[in-house]
Amino acid sequence: MSRWMIGVLSPAAVAFGQVVPVPAFTGDRSEGFTDEVNWNVCTFCEVMEFFESSPGGTDPICTARAPQGGNHLHATASWGYYCTMFPAGTANLFASTGGGGVRFEFTPGFFARRFGGFFGTNSNVGGATAFFYDSAGTLIGSEAMPFAADCKWNWFGWSFTPSAAAIEIVGSFTDGSYVMMDNLEWSQGLACYADCEDDGDLDIFDYLCFQGLFAELNPYADCERDGDWDAFDFLCFQGEYANGCD
């Protein structure tokens, strides 16, 4: 680690936008698309329910649908199109074949403070955009999801202020479709930006974590949220670290 980074005096904390990329985390609930009984009764579904508290549970806190409606949602053990994708580590993966992509709507009382997972595409057009809405339906913000059209998995995750009541994932391919998803994570706890390791402690390892993500040009390490990775992001992170976690 650079001695300069540790030794610079911390300025006042730099304000963030309301949507901030976060590194991979394990949430309060996880979704691997393995427990839905209605997968056996419809090939392409209009509505599916996710994020039970336990495998096979009956208390889902999230309803998924295509934003423009229609029977487009599908979970499967593999999916071939321009190339073939297999699950990122669970029994199934999940995507929409159209209808504007996928909209996740969370049950009141279970709005998301953090949300993330692994994404990719089996189409010939890479990339997607994530849109985040509060309980009034107001757009909190949006984030680009750059990934190649190569059937490989890529992590994307975010924290929100205020909590997200709905999230839409819209692919760059026709009608927002064919964004594959797996190993989704949901958390109701407020993430602390400076806790890069996401372990509940602020220590030197969070600096090392930030420095490693900065070297990878990870969106999380763009602390100023200006599309650049430079010395000001280190100052920004140091300010957040000095500000602590509530």
SSE topology string: HEEEEEEEEEEEEEEEHH
Indicate the multimeric state: single chain
The overall number of domains is 2
Distance between the termini: 26 Å
Shape: globular
According to CATH, the fold-level topology of the largest domain is Jelly Rolls
Query: How many strands in all?
Result: 15
Given this structure, which CATH class of the largest domain is correct?
Answer: Mainly Beta
Strand order of the largest sheet: 3-4-9-14-11-12
Task: Give the amount of beta strand, in percent.
Answer: 25-35%
Radius of gyration: 19 Å
Helix content: 10-25%
Number of helices: 3
Mean pLDDT: 85
Largest sheet: 6 strands, antiparallel
Structural class comes to: mainly beta
CATH architecture of the largest domain: Sandwich
Summary keywords:
single chain, 12% helix, 246 residues, Jelly Rolls, 33% strand, 3 helices, six-stranded antiparallel β-sheet, disordered N terminus, mainly beta, 2 domains, five-stranded antiparallel β-sheet
Overview in brief:
The protein contains three helices and 15 strands. With 246 residues, it is mainly beta.
General description of the model:
The chain is mainly beta and 246 residues long. It folds into 2 domains: 3-15 and 193-243, no CATH class; 29-187, Jelly Rolls (Sandwich), CATH 2.60.120. The chain is built from 3 helices and 15 strands. A 6-stranded antiparallel beta sheet has the order 3-4-9-14-11-12, with no helix packed on it. The chain has a 5-stranded antiparallel beta sheet with strand order 1-13-10-15-2, with no helix packed on it. A hairpin with a 3-residue loop joins strand 6 (79-80) and strand 7 (84-85). It starts with a helix and ends with a helix. Mean pLDDT is 85; it is low at 1-17 and 37-41.
